Amino acid sequence: MTDLPLHEGASRRPRLRAFRSASLRFSLAYGVLFALSSILFMSFIWWGTIGFLERQVETAINADARALVERWMVGGVPTLALTIEDRLEQNLDDDAIYMVIDPEGNYLAGNVSSWPVKVQYTDRWYSLPDTRAGLRGLAEIHAYRLPGTEMTHTAGQLDSGYRLLVGRDMRARTILRRLLTDSLVWAWIMVTLLAVSGAMLVHRIFRRMVKTVARTTSAIAHGDLNRRMPLVGNGDEMDQVAEAINEMLDRIVRLMDGVREVSNSIAHDLRTPITRARTQLEDAALHARDADELRAAIERAVGNLDNITAVFEALLRIAQIETGARRSAFATFDLRPVLFDVAELYEAVAEDHGIRLELDMDEVLPFYGDRSLIQQAVANLLDNAIKFSPEHSTVRLGAHIAAPVAGRVIPSAGGAMLVLEIRDEGIGMTDADMERATERFFRAEKARNTPGSGLGLAMVRAIVQLHGGEIRLARHDPGLSVRLLLPVTSSALAEYGYDPFDEDMPDMTRTSQFSHQHDTNSGVV
């Protein structure tokens, strides 16, 4: 009893599944649209051609009738009859139809024996059967009232007077119309077959592309992160889609690797301070002799926990910056006072380490961005430079407006570029370390013994990327040079009346405001 329903359901499901295919629906829509378009186009050709033939016949009949009426006006029945006989003799196609009758309906001239019963009006065309040489066909006929006769009724009805009948046999045009119809029908059949073939080709191409995407994404969903879309190599739209998908997958893999590395780094770097805080609290709970020792242990543990909190706050801040949430705080301002404030803040730190802090900036540094984020980025770089510089060395902070450099940061149209550089004379980095210096929690081997979380340069990179710029690290014997290339909008330059490329503005051009000599205090903060 259940075999039949199961069989019907099994046969129905593949059919329904086939119609759910997007590629099949797309190809069917393409084929139907192509076939309908061809039908409309060929119907337009058919109606236009047939209508032209009919209008041509009607025009010829009217012209012939006007000429015959003129002959009637000149000589009456004899002249009209003679003209009709001449035209019948000259009618090589044998398709002309003429007839003239008097008011009583008697035949006067022409090649028709009797007036057709259906022809009763002069304001309409008639298609009547016609037999010539044993062949049946259709004739297009029109009746005319000859001048000098009277009509007893309206609406062009013929009741009395001399009447003229002019027509054409439509056999040849009927054959032509049939040939045209057959030709268009066969052409439509061929176009339909081409539409079906094109739909099948489109279906295969679309299905192949979608299946390739589906296989790639399915493989990645099952853990094969190395699977990529194949490229044909001809640079068409499919290759562009494949390249975009591959780039997206590469980005996803990099993000996953970054998340994995960050997770590992968090677990590794935070385990030590957490363990240290726990050990200190446990030791104080077991061995503290008085309240002062217990309070000191708690304060040390709180300090370690504060460091952990600072790390998480830095991670959250980097994530917030990378999402672009801080763009709402962008504004136009002069960066020079901001840099002076940061340098003044780190003056005491540099003096405690016996380090000179020198500045070299333009008189005006117009910029469009987030003031506090740029201030934090410069503070992080100065902190690292001072931290890793030896005693009696020099840390230099420079900031200048420059023309955009080809192949580097491309500012907005009409803009320029802010070059902000911090250079120290410290331990420096190797080339391998500089490639990974901006990664989260990365610390070079030379810096393992110094305090820090490895998030400073990562935050600087996030801030610079938020402003559409680049960060570049280079070795400086001795030491390290960190250069920030930040685009400056044309609106920011215009607001401060700044044109770095105008030779007529010497007071606004790049000048070294501070000396690098140790005996000059103007360049030392």
From TrEMBL:
Boundaries of every HAMP domain copy: 204-257
Keywords, ordered alphabetically: Kinase, Membrane, Phosphoprotein, Transferase, Transmembrane, Transmembrane helix, Two-component regulatory system
Superkingdom of source: Bacteria
Primary enzyme class: transferase
One GO MF term: phosphorelay sensor kinase activity
Membrane-crossing residue ranges in chain numbering: 22-47, 185-206
Catalytic activity reported: ATP + protein L-histidine = ADP + protein N-phospho-L-histidine
Positions of the Histidine kinase domain: 265-490
Subcellular location: Membrane
Gene3D superfamilies found in the cross-reference section: 1.10.287.130, 6.10.340.10, Histidine kinase-like ATPase, C-terminal domain (3.30.565.10)
A GO cellular component annotation in the UniProt record: plasma membrane
Entry keyword annotation includes Zinc: no
Record EC number: 2.7.13.3
Name used for this protein in its record: histidine kinase
Native source organism of the sequence: Gluconacetobacter entanii
Organism taxonomic ancestry: Bacteria, Pseudomonadati, Pseudomonadota, Alphaproteobacteria, Acetobacterales
